[in-house]
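Data card: per-record layout.
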Amino acid sequence: MAVVIDLSAALASTFSHDASIRQQAEQHLDQLKETNFPGYLASITNELGNEDRADDIRQAAALQLKNSVDAKDAVRRQDLMAKWQGTDAALKQHIRDVLLRCLHSPKGDVRKTTALVIAKIANIDMQSKAWPALIPTLLNNMAAQPPASVGTRQATLTTFGYICEEVDESLLSPENVNMILTAVVAGMGQSEQDDVRLAAIKALTNAIHLARGNFEVETERTYLMTVVCQCTLASNQPMRVAAFQCLQQIADNYYPKLQSYMTELYQLSTKAIKDDEDEVATQAIEFWSTVAEYELELVEDGKEDQCKNFIASAAEYLLPLMLDCLAKQDEDSLEDEGTWNRAMAAGFFLKLLARICKDRLVPQVLPFVTGNISSPDWHYREAATFAFGSIMEGPAPAALDQFVRAGLPFLMNALKDQHRVVRETTAWALGQVFEHLHGNEAEGQPPIVAKESIPPLLSALVASLKDEPRVVYYVCDALRFLALGFQSSEGETTPLSPYLKDLVQNLYETAERFRSAPCENSGKAQVAAYEAINDLVRSSARDTLEFVGTLLQVVLGAINTNLETQITSHQAAEKMATLQGQLCGMLQVCMERLCRSDDARAALVPLRDKIMETLLQVMARTQSGAGVHEEAMLAVGTFTVAVGSDFEKYLQNFMPFVRAGLQDHMQWQVCLSTVGVLGDVCRAVGVALWPYCDELVSIILSNLGSPNVHRNIKPELLTVLGDMALAIEGNFAKYLDAVVTILRQAMAMSIQMVSSQDYDTYDYNNLLRRGIIDAFSGIVQGLGDDITKGTGSGSASRDRLTAELPAVYQFVASIGADKTAGDAYDEDVARAATALLGDLCSVLPVRIVLFSTGVVS
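The structure for this 857-residue chain is written out next.
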């Protein structure tokens, strides 16, 4: 057994208020973990199991133990799992024994944390059947005579819940699942203590997806539903909350089985919505939202025949309840960002209801809005506004037209309401109008936002940019959607053109105000202001391009000014990175807009060197840990489109950043952005990329073969190989054998996904297919000239590609035979696969293609 070290002082220091003490303790523990992992595990386990230690030390030990076997990052988690599996068997058994003993601890917090650690370790051990005693031991805790303590039973049920949440269900035998469910349901019995019943209902919520067999048997299903429904009437408030949360999971997993229980569920939920405490009522509303989302998904997937129409049938009874709930705002949580309560849940359900009931909902909501929009009580003014905005999506524009036209003046005036919540909801509601109706008016109807109403509307919105950050956030959103509603394809002008400069200036000043004087929620408002500017620019007409060019230079100057700022702390570096990211995004949008016009694109020529120099400096800052990389990289991608083949002059200075981005596996989105920009570079410079290809192909192939690279990157890596082949043409023959080998492996993986019929892999498989097809198409087209003319390595390339034709045909056939999504299929993938066969026929002799693929013999 490993030597045990006293870690109580170090663990106590991990929650010190002094950051330096906390950091030293964490470094000490990390060093021990790296240099003596067995000793570290034995020592923290000893601290966890020592009943004489303070509760916070034992909890810190449990947290350290959990973090020794689990991590959020998938790659790190796999490493930790392998490390645990390689640990001495005797030490692992000792740790398991201590953990199971801690479930009997008199300390509730210790028991709860221990339950989570057990589940994390079980997730590893059950894969190799290394902890066979776990489930029987837990079941014994529940069946013990005389009964185990309330604390032990509560902790055991919590452990069951965590296990069902953490462990893949394929690792749990049907017998174990049945025994766990039996123990959990028994724990919900009315004879049990409230703490035990609460732990049981939470455990059932986590385990409900495992109860498929039980829900197929009517008697078992009815028993489970009865027990859960009884818990919604418990005297214990947390238990009622948990019971409705469990019903949400049941609705999501077993919607087709609900028909027989809907009358009782309606009675229980509506009683809770009307009469119970806010938290319980909120979860009761969430039950109906879960049902509504399920039914909407069925309709969107073309499965209307499977829809029971529970929501449409109950709509006229549920609607008055929800409208009433809108006015029950929680006064104590008005200032809490992200608060979720009865009123918010009712508004969300109302949005779903509008999408289901469509036009027929409008006249039912209209009296509530008109009757309360001018109420002297702010609760009802806000509720009416919330109801107004919530039904903008779903009903046809014609059904909403008169309603909205009459309501807009009230909303503009309400931006000046004395209560902040009313102003905030008003700005949101205006955004809903602009998003769903503005630009989508019914045929023959004049614009919702008439030309003569623009000045007062903009005046009201701009004035509200000086409001509190939470109001400003939604004002910026409203301006975004207003601009997008006026967007037209390369129009000479739009109704917003005369106001673009002032709008952008006001939004820029708003962002600067929040940056220079940050306050609560100012960060979101600052970002929203920049995003509004971006959409105003995207939507701008030709008559404003001169201003867009001026804005580009202003943004460029701001980025350079920031580059000269001295960074004095990590916090300052993070703030600067966020700001530079927003500015690089604005620069990118300005370039994109100018590139849509040949005249405006020409105006970029004098600024080319300055733009690229600035972006390179931003990326250089990233490598020193004080800048932003992804947004600058994306801006370079747009820049390549702007300058075309002239980008060749920047390749030497830019390629080190491409290399760094491709190798940045930990920040996979940065890596993904870099791959996309490399494709842009390929299309811009063509064969000029050739001197850099050895290194680039090497990194790409290494990434494709690495388990540490996020899988979402790999299809894009395949695509960029096709881009490179198109760029360097016959030179790509040098890499053909290695690349085709990788493509063969990718095709086999895709075919295997089809064989497994796993719907969870369907979307990813389509991404992978596009990558494979893009790569092959690029290669065939890039090498096509040499193959057809017999020049260079054309003959060898032809033979190598011909050898792969049977595999390619099998891959294409698997796309047509894929029934993972039923009769649905990805049309883009199918078209691309057909086009690939056409590319092959255009380069290789048709007879060879048909013979090699088995079409003819």
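Known properties of this structure: The mean pLDDT is 91. Residues 762-789 form the longest helix (28 residues).

See the next section for split statistics.
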